[in-house]
Amino acid sequence: MISGLVQLFLWQGLGELLSKFFLPGIPGPVLGLLLLLTFLCVRKQVDSDLAMVADSFRQHLGLLFVPASVGVLLFLPELQTHALAVSTALIVSVILTIAVTALVLKVLWYFSLKRNKGHRHE
Amino acid sequence: MNKRIPISEIWVYLSGDPLFALIITLATYQLGYLLYVRAKRNPLVNPVAISVILTCLAIHLLEMPYEKYFEGAQFVHFLLGTATVALAVPIYNGFKRMQGKIFHIWVALTAGSTVSIVSAVAIAKLMGASDNIVGSMYAKSVTAPIAMGIAERLNVSPTLTAVFTVITGMLGAILAPYILNSVKVHQWWIRGTAIGVGAHGLGITRAFSVNEEAGVFASMAMGLNGVISAIGLPIVLTYLRPHLGF
């Protein structure tokens, strides 16, 4: 488990440095993610220790944003005033996001299947 | 000899220690997670929401200021960055199964996250929400650790962004099956990808419990969507913001 954590911290550190000195517009952890992804693509395998740590992080990702979310206490009056706007925006947006992503993918896939079939007939 | 220590003194000592905030945070999450598992992973019983509500109640009753709580809880908060890096693993695992679909997924993710941002921001603004709220709608469709990183860079509240993200995840996980059935999409990999973009971590857990392929694609989509938005949003907004007026 420790070796998995160490690897993640190292990539994160590298990402932070890169963000600080070369690409200030992109958060360090995102650069760390891209570096690790490149590394995995080159090595063509994920070692079991890293896989285990990454999996537990993914499973309990929610825990990590509890401290920030508790800050909602400071915004309660503001949220109450705009409750209707907030809930409408969130609900409509979720429905549209899922529907649009699925439909775009479905249509694109349909056309590329059709085209492949066409090629095979020629 | 055995001098009695008044209880208030013990309390002063305990509440000044960072350990206390950590205990509340982890214990409430653990409780929420137990309930979630017991409720057969029903998205309505969201462990994060339970933990946030109970923690809010606890520090409100104890009259502990948020800053004080955060001093202790920051150790958990810090791991967000590390968790973001760890998303590389599910993205990589998804890549292996994406052969021949990369272009399609890329286009769909971009379309999906654009629609998500534009619709949320536009509705909130048209309905007269405050700038703070409208600003925090930008990053809410990205998985929370990345969303908060983006929020900091856009100078909007990471807290509101995190809260909106959690609510989005809950709504997405609850509504996804109905939405996907009503647009008649039945391939598991397409359903998974859409859930990953729209419903984050909670959606992924649900996708995994229904179908393994859907889960893998959902994890991959969530991570990739985060990366695309983290790079794209600040660039797009630098140009658009002056015209939008906030």
User: Main beta sheet of chain A, described?
Assistant: none
Give me the secondary-structure category of chain A. mainly alpha
| N/C terminus separation of chain B | 66 Å
Helix/strand/pairing category of chain B: mainly alpha
Count the helices of chain B. How many? 11
Helix segment tally of chain A: 7
Beta-strand segment tally of chain A: 0
Radius of gyration of chain A: 22 Å
Summarize the structure.
The complex is a heterodimer of chains A (122) and B (246). With 122 residues, chain A is an all-alpha fold.
Description:
Chain A is mainly α and 122 residues long. Helices cover 84% and strands 0% of the residues of chain A. The radius of gyration of chain A is 22 Å and the shape is flat. The relative contact order of chain A is 0.07. Chain B has two domains: 1-79, no CATH class; 87-246, no CATH class. Helices cover 81% and strands 0% of the residues of chain B. Chain B has helices at 7-15, 18-38, 47-61, 66-86, 88-97, 102-126, 131-136, 144-154, 158-182, 188-210, 212-244. In chain B, helix 2 packs across helix 4 (66-86), helix 6 (102-126) packs across helix 11 (212-244) and helix 9 (158-182) crosses helix 10. The model of chain B has no long low-confidence stretch (mean pLDDT 84). The chains are: A mainly alpha (122), B mainly alpha (246).
Task: Describe the SSE topology.
The complex is a heterodimer of chains A (122) and B (246).
Chain A lengths: L1 H20 L6 H16 L4 H12 L1 H4 L1 H5 L5 H6 L1 H39 L1
Helix pairs in contact in A: 1-2, 1-3
Chain B lengths: L6 H9 L2 H21 L8 H15 L4 H21 L1 H10 L4 H25 L4 H6 L7 H11 L3 H25 L5 H23 L1 H33 L2
Helix pairs in contact in B: 2-3, 2-4, 5-11, 6-10, 6-11, 8-9, 8-11, 9-10, 10-11
